[in-house]
Design a protein that fits this description.
The chain is 29% helix and 34% strand. With 147 residues, the protein is α+β, with helices and mostly antiparallel strands. The chain has one domain: Roll (Pnp Oxidase, Chain A). Strands 1, 2, 3, 4, 5, 6, 7, 8 and 9 form a nine-stranded mixed β-sheet that branches. The chain is globular and about 40 Å long. The N and C termini lie close together (11 Å).
Length: 147
């Protein structure tokens, strides 16, 4: 089970993201939940190689009770983000959305549901379409469901 606070957690290697996560956690989500006008959550995964907890901030939207993320790796870089590779290997994750904290099971959206979920996310952040148009990989959509 992933339990931040019980095990040590390493924040994103990107300094701006790490500072964002620190502000978010210190304020219990009041500072950082909305970033650039888009809701953010703090996602904790278990490292696929190290087994250690890793934490980052990710844009999200809701689809009913589910949370939807895009694994764009900043602007659609050539590789999947580490957090995505981690949750593929270990789908149990910890989420903080605002002040709400919970355990979830992560999965990649299937081909049938992906277009609709992608559309939900591009309403919030239209640049995802640009990222996909220039990416050399198919950018995954991730669904988080509470455990």
């Amino acid at each position: 089970m992933i339990e931040p606070g019980v095990e040590p957690v390493t924040d994103s290697p990107y300094p701006g993201v790490a500072r964002h996560v620190a502000r978010y956690l210190a304020s219990d989500g009041r500072d950082g939940h909305l970033e650039a006008g888009v809701p953010n959550l703090v996602l904790t995964t278990r490292g696929r190689k190290s087994g250690k907890l890793r934490r980052t901030a990710v844009f999200y939207t809701r689809d009913g009770e589910r949370y939807v993320l895009i694994a764009s790796h900043m602007t659609g870089g050539p590789k999947h983000p580490d957090w995505y590779l981690n949750l593929v290997a270990n789908p149990e994750v910890h989420v903080q959305a605002g002040s709400e904290k919970f355990t979830a099971r992560a999965r990649t959206a299937d081909a049938e549901e992906k277009p609709r979920l992608w559309g939900l996310m591009t309403k919030l952040w239209p640049d995802y379409d640009t990222y996909q148009a220039t990416a050399t990989r198919e950018i995954p959509v991730v669904v988080l469901e509470r455990v």
